Batch of 4 targets.
Target 1
Amino acid sequence: MLPPGPLAVLGLIALTEDDPERADDLLSQADAMLESVGMREPASHRFHADHIEALIRLGELDRAERLLERFEARARSVPRPWIVATAARCRGLLLAARGDLPAASFHAALTAHEQLQMPLELGRTLLAQGLVQRRAGRRKLAEESFQRSVQVFDALGCGPWADRARGELDRLGTHKGEEETLTPSEERMARLAASGMTNRAIADRLSISPKTVEANLARAYSKLGIRTRAELGATIALTGGSSSSGQMTWISTDASLLLSSDSATSSRESTSWTVTTSFT
C-alpha cells in the first residue's frame, strides 16, 4: 500500500480529472493512515480540502460535514493561511450544496489567500466561488470569478483546471461572438484529432484523461462551427500552416473557415501541471 504522500497526490490528480469517487478512495486511505498514528497536523499532508471537495461532488454531504468540522477545528487551533483559506472554501461549497448562501465563506477564503503564496489554491477558490455565484443567478459576478480563475490556471500551466473554468464560462454564454479564439489546449488537441488520433490516443500522448480531450474538442467544434472529425480535418487542411498574428483565431464565414496562428503561442501550450507545496 502506498504511503499518505503519494496517495494525496494521486487523489488530487483524480479530483482534477473529475473522478471524485477515486479521489475519495485514495484520500480515505491516506486519512486513515495518518489518524492511526495520531498525525493530525494538516500542513504535513495537504489533502484534506481535496477530500472534502470530492465528497461534496459525490453528494456525501454528511461525511463532508464531519471531515470539515475536524478540519475547521484544526484551523482554529493552528490558523495557518492555507488551512483557513481552504477550510473556508470547503465551507462555502458545502453550504451551497445544502442550498444556503455562502458569500461570507468565500470572502473569508479570499482574504486568507492574500497572505498565501499558493496560486493553485487561489484559482480553485475563485472557480468554486464562480460556481456558487452562477447557481445563485449572479451571472456577472460568476463571469468575473471564472475569468480570474482562468488567468491564474493559465499562468501556472494547469491545463485541466483552466479547461474546467473555461467550460463554466461557456455554460454562462456571456462571452460568445462571431469570432472565437481556440485556447492553446484546444488548438493542440484539434490538430491531433485532425491527424487521425483517437481521443484515447490523444489522452495518452498528453498524459490527461479522455474526458478532458472530449471537453476540449467539443469546445473547438463549437467555436469552429463544425460537427465531425472529417470537417475538422478539412478545416485544418484548408487553413494550412501558421502565421504571425498572435494566437490561433478561427473566424466563421459563409464561404470557409480562415485560420491565423502563431507557432510561438502554440509552443507555450501545456496540459501538464505541477503540485507545489508551501508551509506558509
Target 2
Amino acid sequence: MHQVTIPVNMSSPPMLPPANSAIIIKEVKIQQLHSWEISISQAKQIQTELASQISRKSEDIKPRFIAGVDISAPDARGIARSAAVILNYPELKVVETRTAEDKINFPYIPGLLSFREAPLVLAVCQQLSTDPDLILVDGQGIAHPRRFGIASHIGLFLNIPTIGCAKSRLCGTHIPVAAEAGAHAEVTDNDEVIGVALRTKDNVRPIYVSIGHKIDLPTAIHWALECCCNHRLPEPCRLAHLAASGKSINTAYSHQRRVFT
C-alpha cells in the first residue's frame, strides 16, 4: 500500500492546467473547466451552468478500484489536508493512499464548499498511481440547492462516476427512515428527488446519498451499501476521512463487507 503526503501551492496552482484545457495522468483525464479565482456570484453562476452537464444515467459500472476522497478543516495556519484512498473490489482492501496539503483561500460559504475544497481534492487525485473506476465523495452531489455539490464538481472534472455521501442534509426533506440498515427514504426538494437518506447501520443516523456524475440514484445507493463495513460511512469515505485527519489507516480499516438483503 502506497501512502504519500504532497505539499501543494494553491496560491500558484502548478497542479492544475489553464481553463478550458486538459491534462492526461495515467488513464485519468482532468478537465479544468473554469478558473478557481472567482467571486461568490461567479461561483454560483458556474454551478448553475455546469449542473446541466451532469449525467444522471449509469454506465456499466463494474469497479475494480473504488476511491474515497475527503478534506480536513483548515488548521490555525489555514492549511488543510486532502486525502484519496483507493480500495480494491470486492475485497475492499486498501491499495493506495495519498494526501496533499495547502492553504485554503475561498471563504466558507454553505453551498459553495466545492470551490473551497475541490482544488485540493483534485490535486491529490492527480497523484494517484491507481486509476479509480468509481469515487465516493464525502459531500453532496446533486442534493444541493443548485444541483451541483462537490461530488458533482469532482465527477465532472475527472469524468469518472461519482457518488455524494454526505454526513448531513444540505437541502430538501424526507420522511423518517426505518431503523434497520439498508432502509432509505427519498430526499425531495421542490418536488424533485435529489437523493436519499440511507441507513447504513442499524439504529445509527443515516447518511445522505446522491448522484455525483455518470450514475443513477439506484446504482449510487447500491454501491454506497456495497462499500459498507459495519460503520456509518462507506469504507472509502471513512478511510479518506481518517487519512485527511492525519491518522494512519494501516490498522484502522476492516474489509468485512456487510451483506444487505
Target 3
Amino acid sequence: MSQPNRAEDPYSVLVPSGIVVLEGAVGIMEPYDTVDPKNKVVTRELLQEVSEVEAGTFSLVANSIDMDILGMPASALINELTDLSKTRRESSKGVLFGQLIVRSVFNEERAALVALKPFKTAKEAAHEFSLGRYFKGAGKSHGFRTFEPLGIARLENGKFGLLTSYDHGVRSLDNEVWNPANALNSIAVSRAIGKAALVIASMHASGWTHGDAQIKNIFASNHQELFIADIESTQPFKQKHGNPVIPEIERSIEHDIRALAMSLPNGRGREVVPDELLDMFSTFYTTIIRNPKSEVPEELRKSSKYFMQLMQSQY
C-alpha cells in the first residue's frame, strides 16, 4: 500500500481529534470549468451526479485531487485536524478541517487536506460547488478567487458536505481586524480593511454580490492572493430582459456593505474602526466600481458616496 507523502505534507503528523466516515466513499465531481452560474447555477450533469451522491452510488474522479487511484474507492474518511482551523477564526465555525483519506478496492491509499462544510441537502452543496468552480477560473481575472471545490460527500448524520481544498498560508481577515494584539490603526488592520474593499468592490464591478460579505469570509494568502468563502448566497446582478434591475441591484449592494460594516469592530468588544480606515475603504471601493469596465450600472456608480455613507452610519 502506498502511503501519503509525509515529507510534502507537514500537517500529516498532527494527531487527529476525530474521524468522520463518508458513506459510499466520496463523490468527487467532474471539473465543470465551463459552467456559468449567471445562466444556470446547477447544470443537468451536476444534478445527475448529485442524485448519485444522494443514492450513495457515485464514483471517484481521482484526478480532481491528483490521487491517481485505480478503480472504485472502497472507503473514505476524514481525520479531523483542529490545528488547521487556527488561521480561519470565525469562518471555521461549523466547518471540519482534516486529512481526507481514500482507499481503493486495490488497497491503494491517497490523502489530501480538505475542509468539509455541511449542508442539509446535496443540492445546496451542489449550488456552492458550481459557484466555486466558476469563481475558481473567472475570479482570478477579477482579482479574487475561492477555495477549490472538490466534491460532495454524504455524511453519517444524513446531511451532505461540500469538500474544498485546504490552502496553506491563507488566513481570514478577521484574524487581523479582531486580533487584540493589533491596534486598529496598525498596518495589519489597515491592510486587511483595504483588501476587504478590493474584494467586495471587485465582486460588484464584475456583476456579483456576495450575500454574506462579513470580514470573516474574506481571506488573503501569504502571496497576497485574495479569496472569498461562504458563497452559497452569492448571486449575479438581477436582470430582466437583458437590462439591469436597478432597485434590486442597489439593495444587494447595500446588503453587502452593511454586512461588512457590521462585522468590523464597532465598540462592542473592541474599539471603533478609525475614520481614516473607513475613508480608505471608501477610496478603494469607489475607484474600482467607477471603472468604465465595471458592471455596476452607471446610476449606482454615481451613488457610490451614498454607499460609503451607509457604511459609516453603522458606527
Target 4
Amino acid sequence: MKKMCFFTQNDLTSHQRSTGQRYFEFLRVPDMSAGLYVLPAGSVDGQQPHSEDEIYVIMVGRGEFTCEGETRPVAPGDVIYVPAHADHRFHDIAEDLEILVFFAPAEGVLHQRRQIVQEGEIEVDTDRTRLDIELIHQFLTTSYWAKGCDRDLVVRSIQNSLCFGAYEGDNQIAFGRVITDFATFAYMSDVFVIETRRGRGIAKMLVAAMMAHPDLQGVRKWNLHTRDAHGLYTEFGFFAPGEISSYMEFRP
C-alpha cells in the first residue's frame, strides 16, 4: 500500500457492525495494522497478550483498563500504550466502548507468514480476514466436538490460532486451525469441509497445506483428536499410540 488511505469513524463503525465481529481490521501493511474494537456495556474482554506492541485510542464509551496489575479508568480521548506480551484487558464497561487499535508490526506477522496453495479452482489461504466467521460458527456449533459453542468463543479461538481457509472463488468451503508455539508443539483442530463439497480431496489438500506451512517446519510433535477421520490423517503419518497413560487433561 503506497497511497494515503482516509477513514471516517462512521464508516468504520458501519463496517464493523456489518461483519458482526467485535474487532474489524481496516488497515494492514507489513509494519503495522489497525482495527476498530467494540465492546458493549457489561461485556467481557477475552483477549490474550499479543506478540506486538499496541496502542489503544478510546473513541466512545467508558470503562476500566488493566495492564499487568495496574488499573485505570478510560474515557473518550484516552490513549494507552501496551508493550508486547503484556497481560491486559478492558473490564467494568459502563458504556459501549469503541476503540481504535494499532499493532506494530502488523498483528500476527511475527508468528504467521501468509501461505496460499492453489489446486485447480480450490485455494487454501491463511489470511484470517477472508474467513467466513458465520459459516465456521454454524458448522462448529453442530459438530460432535464443539456442539453448542458460542460465537465469541469461536472468534477468540481464531484470533489465537494459525488458521487455514479453503475457498472456491469467493466462497469458503473448508476450515482448519493449528494451535502451536511454532517450535515444539502443533495441535490440529476444527478441520472440516462443508457437506456439499466433500468427496473431492479438499480435506487432504487442506491438511497438506497445514502441515507444509513454512512456520511449522521443524515442529517436534503434532497431534489431534478424531472420531471418524483416521483414514485421512494416517496418510500424513499420524497414528494412534497404543499406550496413552501419559495423556492427561483438565476440563473446568
